[in-house]
Amino acid sequence: MKRFTKDDNFQFLFFALLVLFFGCSVMQQYYPEGQKTVLGLIIVTLAVSIAGINRERTIYRSLYGFLLVTAAVSGMLSFFEDYDLSILTLAALLMFLFSHIYSALKQVMLVREVTKNHIIGSICIYLLMGLAWTFLYLLVLEIYPQGFNGLEHKPWLANLFNVLYFSFITLTTVGYGDISPTLPVAQFFVFLEAILGSFYLAIMVASLVSIRLSQGNK
């Protein structure tokens, strides 16, 4: 079996994210009650995202592993009526994603030679940003049930695909308006995502082109 390395980890992550997003849409349409399957897809996808981290960086691998285990255990416990650890689950997933986006940015932008893996990595970072803001909105919805128009307050996995859709519509600044924030806190995170989404594309494209030109001159 081929091992993940830093030279091809983004390729595996890209396909894992596509499978996750498509799986969420299929489950939402045909089997909305299949929440355990969706949670499993999320954990597996995020586990793939850290598979290429250098094994010598044990602190990072241990931190990411701890956050994933916390999210998995608290998420499973939330299926029982006596436990509601949704905020803990979402916080763990959110911490994982933001820390991993930071690590991926360093891997993609601080390079002297652009490869296919780096280009795919820049796309993965964009997808991870949309996923991170999804969990951020779900966390806001847990704390402020009336934070969004067009979203009912129900278990976060039941809202996952609708919030995922809203996150990417916001990230790409399309904004259809079928879901909208109603509270100032939610509105702040929405316009922050729109700003970061626009600037990310401009900065990332400029950086990769600049590195590519320098590479060509050499």
CATH topology name? Helix Hairpins
How many strand segments?
2
- Do you know the CATH architecture? Orthogonal Bundle
Element-level helix/strand string:
HHHHHEHEH
Pfam families: Ion_trans_2
GO biological process, one term: monoatomic ion transmembrane transport
Organism: Vibrio gallaecicus
Keywords: Ion channel, Ion transport, Membrane, Transmembrane, Transmembrane helix, Transport
Provide a short characterization of the protein structure.
The chain is mostly helical and 218 residues long.
Topology:
Blueprint: H1 9-30, H2 35-49, H3 58-77, H4 86-109, H5 116-143, E1 148-149, H6 156-171, E2 180-181, H7 184-217
Antiparallel strand pairs: 1-2
Commentary on this structure:
- By secondary structure, the protein is mainly alpha-helical.
- It has one domain: Helix Hairpins (Orthogonal Bundle).
- It has a two-stranded antiparallel ribbon.
- The longest helix is centred in the last third of the chain and has 34 residues.
- The protein is globular.
- The mean pLDDT is 82.
Task: State the main characteristics.
two-stranded antiparallel ribbon; Helix Hairpins; 7 helices; 218 residues; mainly alpha; single chain
